[in-house]
Design a protein that fits this description.
Helix content: 40-55%
Structural class: alpha+beta
Length: 225
């Protein structure tokens, strides 16, 4: 994990005729301001990034809760032209900070001179849809709790995510196995428990892959619910 200060200190690339970089601090300020205007109170902020923080991921947990999860807003940005600005509304599991994202990440396609207006529009759309996304994730959560799995079924699902779907890395597979047998918070044999074992493993994802990997795991698991 990194701090907001670490992110702000990252070297901003130069603007060109075809490329307008989006400063990390400008994106963060836009998100905070838009959340405030829509009466969303930030309860917790988390950031991660690569070594020189030219690729970052952030998630803001919102003080909207069902007692088990909080609504959240996730975002990403890059200074090396590898990732467009991306935004998504989802949920965070309170006891462990595991993330839940569904649907698709909303992205700004091009870093052109109008990029900030595009971000503002995209951000407004994501925030307006946030409560709906959170409600849908809540329904998905309850469906997962009804599905029982034994260890063999969990092993088969883990293998499919590793080999067929290519979502998990070898290191994440090891982390998933550890969680299945030694999770601090999830000890039952339900699809919801397996989902959290999997999303815990995804905490080791590259910053640019955190959101898409979570979406892929959610889509994969919900086909079984």
């Amino acid at each position: 994990m990194i701090t907001e200060y670490d992110i702000i200190q990252a070297d901003l690339p130069e603007r060109t005729a075809s490329y307008t970089p989006v400063p990390h601090n400008a994106l963060i300020s836009m998100i905070k301001e838009k959340l405030s205007k829509n009466d969303f109170e930030i309860a917790k902020m988390r950031y991660s990034g690569n070594r020189n923080t030219n690729q970052i991921f952030g998630v803001y947990d919102i003080a909207t809760s069902d007692g088990e999860t909080n609504l959240n807003i996730g975002f990403r940005n890059s200074y090396d032209k590898t990732l467009p600005v991306g935004l998504v509304a989802g949920a965070s599991v309170i006891v462990c900070s595991n993330l839940m994202f569904r649907g698709e990440i909303k992205v700004v396609r091009k870093h052109t001179k109008n990029v900030f207006a595009d971000i503002d529009t995209l951000l407004e759309n994501v925030i307006q849809s946030a409560k709906y996304e959170y409600e849908q994730l809540g329904e998905d959560k309850e469906r997962m709790k009804l599905k029982l799995l034994d260890k063999r079924q969990m092993a088969e699902l883990a293998g499919r995510m590793f080999i067929e779907e290519r979502i998990l890395t070898a290191n994440q597979m090891s982390e998933l196995k550890r969680e299945i047998y030694h999770s601090e918070f999830f000890h039952d044999d339900t699809l919801w428990d397996f989902y959290n074992h999997s999303t815990h493993a995804l905490k080791k994802s590259h910053p640019g892959q955190i959101i898409p990997n979570h979406i892929r795991v959610h889509d994969f698991v919900m086909k079984l619910a």
